[in-house]
Amino acid sequence: MSNLSASVEKVMRLAPVIPVLVIEDIEHALPVAEALVAGGLPALEVTLRTDCAIEAIKVMKQVPGAVVGAGTVLNPDDLDRALDAGAEFIVSPGLTPRLGEAAIKREVPFLPGTANASDVMLALDMGFDRLKFFPAMAAGGPPALKAISAPLAQAKFCPTGGVTPANAPEWLALDAVICVGGSWMVPKGKPDPKKIEADARTAAGLAR
Ligand SMILES: O=C(O)C(=O)C[C@H](O)[C@H](O)COP(=O)(O)O
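That is the input. Now the predicted structure with 2-keto 3 deoxy 6 phospho gluconate docked in place:
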């Protein structure tokens, strides 16, 4: 395993689920992060999809125990913005050579998105073997990942996209899966910290 993949694997092993967060209002960042960490989900993926995402990374890093990363990182500029804000890991929906090279150069734990055998082969060629499988359900669900993994057993995954409390156990039972990503713990709108913490605790208790 490459060093960068080893460091991202540490993040993947913090909990069975990485919450994928779309923070619409900066006021939500602190209560959401506190509730998730209190519930046992320390790795937090803040997607760069909203205007306050970069600020949200900075705010969430103040929560003791939180390991805050950036998601929806599409190019080297996004990667730099995320690192400047203090992101500790980087997640992308796909992989381009430009983005992969930037992650290698900046030596940041990087979880590139893959959806098929060719994507996984490009990632392996670049030295990445800890990968996101996205969009996990739409790309064929657990049977697809199982089939892709058969010839590419050195790659291990965090399936994300359509993962739910109902199907997470099936994903986590696969040899190729280290953890899953999902947004179900934090629905849109004003956060309900008690509910988020309870849902995080259930997610943190999933077997793998
Ligand atoms: O933003 C990114 O970088 C992505 O790759 C997409 C997210 O991982 C999915 O949108 C999460 O999917 P749901 O759990 O189905 O909500």
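The domain at 3-202 is CATH 3.20.20.70 (TIM Barrel).
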